[in-house]
Structure formats: structure tokens, C-alpha cells
Amino acid sequence: MPIVLSDLLTPSAAEVLSAAAAQLPFEDGARTAGSVARAVKDNEQAANVPETRAVTEKIQATLLSHPGFQAVAYPRQFARLIVSRTSGGGQYGDHVDNALIAGQRADVSFTLFLSDPDTYDGGELVIGDRIEDRQFKLDRGEAIVYPSNTLHRVNPVTRGARIVVIGWVTSWVRDPAQREILFDLWRAINTTDDPAQQQLLSKSRSNLIRMWAG
Ligand SMILES: O=C(O)CCC(=O)C(=O)O
Ligand SMILES: [Fe+2]
């Protein structure tokens, strides 16, 4: 169940991060892909320098303080964050993310879009949803969060450059179906005006987290 987070960053914060990301030194991304992904991956990623870490740390902190991200991901740890740039027809073919990334289990994946969508063509993140593919090309500062066990790809970028921050989270709740139930309960709590219902739903949600977290 992919979820779009539209209110992660203010437009000015997104602009600052986007400008900072565009200045980073980029290197070939195929080095970091697993053996299956390597055959389909065609992007660049920012080198591990302090300026890159400043961008990824800011995004990590922003995600951690966002209630919607908490409610969909139950983050226990960030396995890795990467600033990725794709241009010149580059793409990332159909793949599923590695189960283990930097020694951590990858449960939840995300892409935070940093480029103005008008400045490049293509570059949609396409997520297979069992019944149909869904395409996401988000505004600067918006992010999509989706379970790491889903098949996905990035369409070729045929004009301009697409800069995103991608990352993987180890979740307190490893089962995507359980996370979906918790997310539905969270939404129900936030949409009902009835305090008695809110209390019962919150109680159920907390007790399910207690049962499932680990
Ligand atoms: O660039 C993206 O939106 C996703 C990239 C991706 O799927 C990956 O690096 O595993
Ligand atoms: Fe991926």
C-alpha cells in the first residue's frame, strides 16, 4: 500500500534541499546494487561526503518527526539513505529491493522527490499493485512510502535530471499487512469526532502494536 506524504517539507525547505542536492558530487550507482538489480540499474548517487550526509540527515529527521510517516512505517532504524540522480535516458528496471541493506532488514522503502517535475521528462516511480501498476511523479518535497516487498521500477529520464532521496527502513512491524491494519486504525482515529470511538480505536491500535512490535 503506497502512501504519498505531501506535507513533509515547506516549499522553501524543499527548495533549499533541492539546491543543496544538485551541488553534490555524484558517482556511478551500479556499484551499490545487488547482482540482479545491477543489471537493471542505471543512475548516479551522491558520494559519501559531509554535504551529502547533511542532506540525508535532514530528511531522516524530517521523516521521523512526521506523524504520517510514523503511522505507516513504524521506523525502528534507517538502513540507508541515498541521494540519487538519473538523467540521459537512465532508468531502473523492474526489481524488488534487497531484503538486507547495510546489515538491516529492509521493510519499508521511500522516495522523496527533490527535482521540480517540470524540469525533467519520465522518471516516474512505477509500483506494481497486484492488479495494476501505479505511477508516481511527485512535486518537490513530496515523498512516497511503500512496502519493500513490492516490485517497482523507475521509468527512463529522457530530459533533464531527476534527483531524489531514496531510503529503507527497518520497521517495528515487519509484516506489511499488519502495518496496513495499524495505518487504517490511525486514519480512523484521526477522522472520527466521537471521543468514545477514538478511545476504543486507540486502545486497539496500541495493543496491536504491543502484540506485533519486535
Ligand atoms: O529512484 C527511485 O524512486 C527508486 C529507486 C529504487 O527503486 C532503488 O534504488 O531501489
Ligand atoms: Fe528499488
UniProtKB/TrEMBL annotation:
The keyword Transmembrane helix does not apply. SMART domains: P4Hc (SM00702). InterPro entries: Oxoglu/Fe-dep_dioxygenase_dom, PKHD_hydroxylase, Pro_4_hyd_alph, Pro_4_hyd_alph_FE2OG_OXY. Keywords: Dioxygenase, Iron, Metal-binding, Oxidoreductase, Vitamin C. GO terms for molecular function: 2-oxoglutarate-dependent dioxygenase activity; iron ion binding; L-ascorbic acid binding. One of its GO terms (biological process) is DNA damage response. It comes from the Bacteria. 2-oxoglutarate binds at R162. Its cofactor is Fe(2+); L-ascorbate. Residues 77-171 form the Fe2OG dioxygenase domain. Fe cation binds at H95, D97, H152. Binds 1 Fe(2+) ion per subunit. NCBIfam families: PRK05467.1-3 (NF003974). This is PKHD-type hydroxylase. It comes from Shimia aestuarii. The lineage of its organism: Bacteria, Pseudomonadati, Pseudomonadota, Alphaproteobacteria, Rhodobacterales.
